[in-house]
């Protein structure tokens, strides 16, 4: 089971979004296409600039291919660990609210579990600590 954060939109036209907590393997392996697919234009520009800068600095300093591979692997690891946080930040900037954190096997199951609990949120019957209305 994975931990997902479910975000609900502020407007009715958007969908409920679930984002997995932790490492993002797709962003680690394919960082630029991942940023394009998620429409993170500023982050795509930052990834390109970081790659060019690291390559340029290592060529000037005389780094061999092993040093360059280690540097680019480190950059890819940083992107993989922060990718889901970047997506969360982008959603909150677009007006989404973090609704709930829950366990699920897939994003679809996380969204369906959240949608199944929505009607129960609006029931205001008094309950005791045992969970019943008595």
Structure description:
It is a single chain. The chain is elongated, with a radius of gyration of 21 Å. The protein starts with a strand and ends in a 13-residue tail after the last helix. The protein has one domain. Helices cover 57% and strands 14% of the residues. The mean pLDDT is 87. β1 and β2 form a beta hairpin. With 134 residues, it is of the alpha+beta class. The chain is built from five helices and three strands. A three-stranded antiparallel beta sheet has the order 2-1-3, sandwiched between helices.
Please supply descriptive tags for the structure shown above.
3 strands; alpha+beta; 134 residues; elongated
Order of helices and strands: EEHHHHEH
Domains (count): 1
Shape designation? elongated
Work out the strand percent. Answer: 5-15%
Percent of residues in helices: 55-70%
The stretches of 5 or more residues where confidence is low (pLDDT under 50) are: none
Strand line-up in the sheet with most strands: 2-1-3
Number of helices, counting only DSSP H or I runs of 4 residues or more:
5
How many runs of DSSP E, i.e. beta strands? 3
Q: Tell me the Rg in angstroms.
A: 21 Å
Instruction: Give the termini separation.
Output: 35 Å
Summarize the biggest pleated sheet: 3 strands, antiparallel
- Derived from helix and strand composition plus strand pairing, the structural class reads alpha+beta
User: What's the rounded overall pLDDT mean?
Assistant: 87
Please write out the topology.
Blueprint: E1 2-8, E2 17-20, H1 25-29, H2 31-37, H3 41-60, H4 65-93, E3 97-104, H5 107-121
Antiparallel strand pairs: 1-2, 1-3
């Amino acid at each position: 089971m994975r931990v997902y954060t479910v975000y609900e939109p502020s407007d009715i036209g958007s969908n409920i979004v679930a984002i997995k907590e932790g490492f993002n393997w797709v962003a680690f392996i394919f960082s630029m296409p991942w940023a394009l697919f998620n429409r993170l234009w500023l982050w795509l520009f930052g990834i390109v600039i970081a790659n060019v800068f690291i390559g340029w600095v290592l060529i000037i300093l005389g780094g061999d291919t092993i040093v360059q591979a280690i540097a680019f692997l480190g950059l890819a690891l940083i992107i993989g660990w922060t990718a889901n946080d970047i997506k969360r930040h982008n959603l909150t900037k677009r007006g989404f609210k973090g609704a709930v954190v829950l366990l699920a096997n897939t994003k679809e199951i996380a969204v369906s579990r959240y949608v199944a609990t929505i009607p129960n949120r609006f029931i205001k019957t008094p309950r005791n600590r045992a969970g019943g209305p008595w």
